[in-house]
Amino acid sequence: MKLSIERATLLKAVSQAQSVVERRNTIPILANVLIEASGDHASFRATDLDIEVVDRVTAMVERAGASTVSAVTLHEIVRKLPDGALVTLTDDGASGRLTVEAGRSNFSLTTLPKEDFPVMATSEYTSNFTASAMTLRRLFDKSKFAISTEETRYYLNGVYMHVAEGDGGQKLRCVATDGHRLARIDADLPTDAGDMPGVIVPRKTVGEMRKLLDDDDAQIAVSVSETKVRFATPNVTLTSKVIDGTFPDYTRVIPSGNTRKLEVDAAEFAKAVDRVATVSSERSRAVKLALDEDRLILSVNAPDSGAAEEELAVAYGDEKLEIGFNAKYLLEIASQVDRENAVFLFNTSGDPTLMREGNDTSAIYVVMPMRV
């Protein structure tokens, strides 16, 4: 195999591959990227047995073939090469080495047999549809902060993507929760997505898939089966197993009877929470909200480190209320607001609180209160 490829193109392909491979694994081949060259293209394939990414790029192929080499080492080499360099990759098939040449730089890397590289079995996808990168980015970006990190509740370690009834008919919906906060984001249902099975997309897959969504104009081909999900652009295909579990009935924890309404500038609110939380002990990070007519007092009282208080002018016309929250949860939810105003809907100091952006119900968040 012998091919030449522009450094920036190669770096993009190899960086996607090296982020998928597991740093610590007992199967050496899983640390490698499989490079396959033919015609005028080269493909770079990496897997951790749960996710597989294939990046197909244009290359000058002198001799078709395939080779596998350490993804991390290749990435580090290409990253350190000068901008605009033309990189030549050569594997003569006999030496067990891949040569990387660029200008006066020359590297010789050990390879492993390409036959040992595991290729993820193709799945029969029951649903195939196309969604814009912008739509998918909004769905996953606004929900992923609420993914649980508790390994014991593995069915919460991802984003639940499914078809649900929303305002004005069926929607493509993404939900994530860790039991303390919940995010539910809706988008218009793409054509042909109506029969999609609900799947839990793992946290790592959400992170990797996010790299495909930077181009606002891009259309992403989405394929879903009971066991796998695939996101594809013309050049990159990301295939992943989904979490084998049942996502809980999240609708039961979304309050519907919260009537006390607070409207506040989202950016100002986030900055104020951040300021007062500075004195709180890291363990609890509890912030108290004291609501009175058109006034909100945020306070923290940490006996071991001090106290802080800040007042904000807000729109609030209901009876007085004092309620406490984890500062980190408030900050994460407030940072999701794209519009100017955040609307909080409270019931009592012990009940879950609902938050949305203005009157928009396509993105809603639930956060559990804390005792303060």
UniProtKB/TrEMBL annotation:
Keywords: Cytoplasm, DNA replication, DNA-binding, DNA-directed DNA polymerase, Nucleotidyltransferase, Transferase. Residues 252-371 form the DNA polymerase III beta sliding clamp C-terminal domain. InterPro entries: DNA_clamp_sf (IPR046938), DNA_polIII_beta (IPR001001), DNA_polIII_beta_C (IPR022635), DNA_polIII_beta_cen (IPR022637), DNA_polIII_beta_N (IPR022634). It is found in: Cytoplasm. GO terms for cellular component: cytoplasm; DNA polymerase III complex. GO terms for molecular function: 3'-5' exonuclease activity; DNA binding; DNA-directed DNA polymerase activity. Pfam families: DNA_pol3_beta (PF00712), DNA_pol3_beta_2 (PF02767), DNA_pol3_beta_3 (PF02768). Confers DNA tethering and processivity to DNA polymerases and other proteins. Acts as a clamp, forming a ring around DNA (a reaction catalyzed by the clamp-loading complex) which diffuses in an ATP-independent manner freely and bidirectionally along dsDNA. Initially characterized for its ability to contact the catalytic subunit of DNA polymerase III (Pol III), a complex, multichain enzyme responsible for most of the replicative synthesis in bacteria; Pol III exhibits 3'-5' exonuclease proofreading activity. Forms a ring-shaped head-to-tail homodimer around DNA. This is Beta sliding clamp. It comes from Planktomarina temperata RCA23. The lineage of its organism: Bacteria, Pseudomonadati, Pseudomonadota, Alphaproteobacteria, Rhodobacterales. The gene is dnaN.
